[in-house]
Amino acid sequence: MLAFTLRFIKNKRYFAILAGALVIIAGLASQHAWSGNGLPQINGKALAALAKQHPVVVLFRHAERCDRSDNTCLSDSTGITVNGAQDARALGKAFSADIQNYNLYSSNTVRTIQSATWFSAGRSLT
């Protein structure tokens, strides 16, 4: 096996193809398992299955802040942007497709209340 590998590596073209394929496979595998911030990812279906077996707490940060963006503010300058509201709604739709029954909590800042409200399509905060 080692002799075959050494002969194979001597051919630079095959070595480049092999190295490129390994880099692509490693990249795809790591992106599948880990998010950009280094924390594990979980999809909605897996989360829903887990939630049926155990109590689950899911934390979301607020949507795009108005005071740290050039995008149009939704309303209050301490709140979120229009884009942030749309992103929160899209995330909420995806979440609700897999998990319908959940309690929603928010701190009392404008941006977190707006984010939670758009996430839940107006559902009452707990």
TrEMBL record:
The keyword Transmembrane helix does not apply. The keyword Hydrolase applies. GO terms for molecular function: hydrolase activity. Keywords: Hydrolase. It comes from the Bacteria. Its EC number is 3.1.3.-. NCBIfam families: PRK15416.1 (NF011945). This is Lipopolysaccharide core heptose(II)-phosphate phosphatase. The lineage of its organism: Bacteria, Pseudomonadati, Pseudomonadota, Gammaproteobacteria, Enterobacterales.
